[in-house]
Amino acid sequence: MRSGAAFSGRGKRAAFALYYGPLHFLLVRGIVRSLGSARRSPRRILDLGCGTGTAGAAWALECEPTAEIVSVDLNRWAVNEARWTAGRLGLRGRATRGDVVSEKLPRPPAGILAAFTVNELEHASRARLLPRLLDAAVAGSTVLVVEPLSRRVSPWWPEWAAAVESAGGREDEWRFPAVLPRTLALLGKASGLDTRQLSGRSLALGFY
């Protein structure tokens, strides 16, 4: 189960709302555009462990037509932020509190996203989630898992990558030049962060 500890404290919440959320939007948008269209265009995006909702919104906006979005997180603050994000971007859908591991998956064709979420799960929860995602892909949904590049914080990654590749999916590492709005770039610079590129790794099933 995802604890929601990433959003404990006002400082962490502010960092996600003002900085990391927008970066996640830009990164996931770049990944989806690079992967290409889904084999079956998602009618709905399920954003598991949605945080501020920016990653799911980025994918939903890339769908044609724009997909409905369902955002799920245990943290009440994150759910409210995800609602705000969807509303500001004109997306249809809802945001609810829930457990990402046991959340009912939408009927295919759907998109299922776990962005910066799997690493926060306990081992037993990750073990339960992986086969559910693989089964969803077999049924016709498109699955995307996104995490930071660092493998030190994701020792589970090789197992998941092997399972996804065995199921016909792909593993990728991404580094995109960062073209950030001025305010966002200044926030990163003031915090001593590298704002020159967006980076991450992904596992994908159901893209061309």
Topology:
Blueprint: H1 10-35, E1 44-48, H2 54-62, E2 68-73, H3 76-88, E3 93-97, E4 111-115, H4 123-138, E5 142-147, H5 157-166, E6 170-177, H6 182-190, E7 197-205
Parallel strand pairs: 1-2, 1-4, 2-3, 4-5
Antiparallel strand pairs: 5-7, 6-7
Helix pairs in contact: 1-2
Going by CATH, the homologous superfamily would be Vaccinia Virus protein VP39
H/E order of the elements?
HEHEHEEHEHEHE
Instruction: Report, as a whole number of angstroms, the end-to-end distance.
Output: 31 Å
Q: In order across it, which strands form the biggest sheet?
A: 3-2-1-4-5-7-6
Strand fraction equals 15-25%
CATH-defined topology: Rossmann fold
The level 1 CATH classification is Alpha Beta
Got a strand count? 7
| Count of folded domains | 1
Mean pLDDT: 91
The major β-sheet equals: 7 strands, mixed
CATH architecture: 3-Layer(aba) Sandwich
Description:
This protein is of the alpha/beta class. The protein has one domain (5-205): Rossmann fold. It is built from six helices and seven strands. It has helices at 10-35, 54-62, 76-88, 123-138, 157-166, 182-190, and strands at 44-48, 68-73, 93-97, 111-115, 142-147, 170-177, 197-205. Strands 3-2-1-4-5-7-6 form a seven-stranded mixed β-sheet, sandwiched between helices. It is globular and about 45 Å long. The protein starts with 9 loop residues before the first helix and ends with a strand. The mean pLDDT is 91.
